[in-house]
Amino acid sequence: MPRTMFVLLCSTTLATNPQASHSTPTLSIGLVMRGTKVEKCFPRQELNDRAKVSMVDSTPLRFYFRTAEHLFKQAKIYQMEGDLQTSYILYMRFCNLVISELQKHPDYTNPDHKPWLLALRKSAMTALKETEALKPVLDKKYEDYQEYIRQREAKIRAQAMEAQQQLEMQRKQNTERNLREQQELHWADNPPTQTWSLAKALEGVPGVYPAQPAHRVHSRHHHYDNTVAVSEIQYPEQYQRQYHGRSEAPMPSIQPQQLVPTPTGPPPALPRKPVSLNNAPKLPPKIQIEEDVHEFSRGLRTLIVPVRLLDRFLNIVRPNTIKNLETCGILAGVLSHNRLTVTTLIIPKQTATSDTCSTTNEDELFEYQSERDLMTLGWIHTHPTQTCFMSSVDLHTHCSYQLMLPEAIAIVCAPKHDKDYGVFRLTDPPGIQVITNCRQKPLFHQHPGEDDIYTDACDQGHVELVDLDLEIVDLRRK
Ligand SMILES: [Zn+2]
Ligand SMILES: [Zn+2]
Fold first, then answer.
1. pTM score of the predicted model
2. Measured in angstroms, how far is the CA atom of residue 9 from the centroid of ligand 2?
3. In this structure, what DSSP letter does residue 234 have?
4. CA pair distance 337, 255, nearest whole angstrom
5. Low-confidence ranges of the chain (pLDDT < 50)
6. CATH number for the domain including 95?
C-alpha cells in the first residue's frame, strides 16, 4: 500500500456541562429511550466543539475527499436512525472540513480536483440546511434532558430520606425488643433470692423517706409484685404541706416499671445476638447519572468481521503468495445502528514486492465503493516471506485508515506460518500521535517506543468475528 500521510484531528472530549440551567415544566417527547436508559444530551456548544477538524499535514487531497464523503454518509445514516446529536456532529465536521479546511491545502487549486470539490460543495449546502434544522431540535432535547435529570434526582433524594427514616424507626423497635427479651431471660434465669420491697428499693432516693414501720411486700412466687399501693409511699414534708387537706391534690405518679429492683444475681448479660435488621426497608439505589449513550463519547463502535474472511482472502491471493508477492485487500462495509459490518472484500488493482504492495487506479476503487455506499472499514494484506507484524510502512498506511475511521483495522496474515495472522490497530495514544508526527524518510524505519505503537484490535473488544456472508470483488480482473 502506498505510504499516505494525512491527519484529520477531531476534538474527542465531550464533557457534560453542569452549569446549564433551564426550566421546562414537563418532559417532552424529545428524549430518546434506549432500552431502559435515556439518551444523554449535550449543549450545542459541546456538539460544535466535537465537530472541529484541522489538517496538519500536506496529505493528498484525495484522502480528505474520501474522509469528507465518509462523514456525510455517516451523518445521513445517524439522522435516519434518529441519533440526531451524532448526525449533527458529523454534518458539522463535514462542513468544517469542506468549507474551511480543504482550501488551506496546497493542492486545492489543482484543476483535477474540480469535480470532487463541486460535488462536496453541493453536499455542504445540504449539510448546512440539515444542521440549521437540527439546531432548535437539539436545544429543546437538551432542555428536556436537564429537566429530566433534576426531577429524577429530586425523586431519588426523597426516596432515600423516606427509607432512612423507616430504617431508623425499625432499628429503634428492634433494640427495644431485644432489651426486653434479654431482661425477661435474665429474670427467668436469676430469680430474686430475697423479698423485694418498694421501700427498700427507694432507699437512698433523694426526697423519698421510708415510712415507719416499713411495709413489706411479700411474694410467694418469687415474682416481683409491682402493685405497690401508692399510699405506702411517704412523700416529702414540703409536698405534704403544699397539698395538705386537698383531696384533689395531684399526687406524683410513680409508675411501677420505673422502679428498678435491686438485682441479686449477676448483671444481665448483653443481648446475645445483634439487632436484626433483616426486615429493614431497603435503601433506594444510589443516584445514577444516565449512561452516556452518545455514540462518539463511549469509545469504539463494534466492528463485525465475517469469520471466513481470512481463509477466502488467502485462497484468492495464493498465486501471489507462491510467488512471494504481497497482496492487499480493502475491507468495505456498512454502518447500521451504530455497528460497522464488513460486507465486502475488494481486491484493488495493485503492484507488489515481497515486502510491499501499492494500490493503483484508486479512482476505480473509490467509485466502486461510492456507487454502493460502502465505507472503508480497514484493510488486509499478506506477508508471504515474513512473520505476522506491522512494519513501519504498514503503520503509516494504517494511520490514514484509522484517522478516517477510529474503528478501522489492519489484518496481517503470514501464510507460511501456520495460522499466523493478526488484527491490529494503532494505540491512541501514543501510536496515532507517533506515526502522525513521524518525518523519517527511509521506507522502513524504527519508531520510538515501538512496542506501544500498535495493539491487537481484538483485545480492545470492538472487533467481533461472526459467521456472515462476504462478497468478494476482485478489481484486478476488470
Ligand atoms: Zn505489512
Ligand atoms: Zn514512521
1. 0.65
2. 18
3. B
4. 75
5. 1-7, 9-29, 213-233, 239-241, 243, 245-249, 251-252, 254, 256-263, 275, 287, 289, 291-297
6. 1.20.58.80
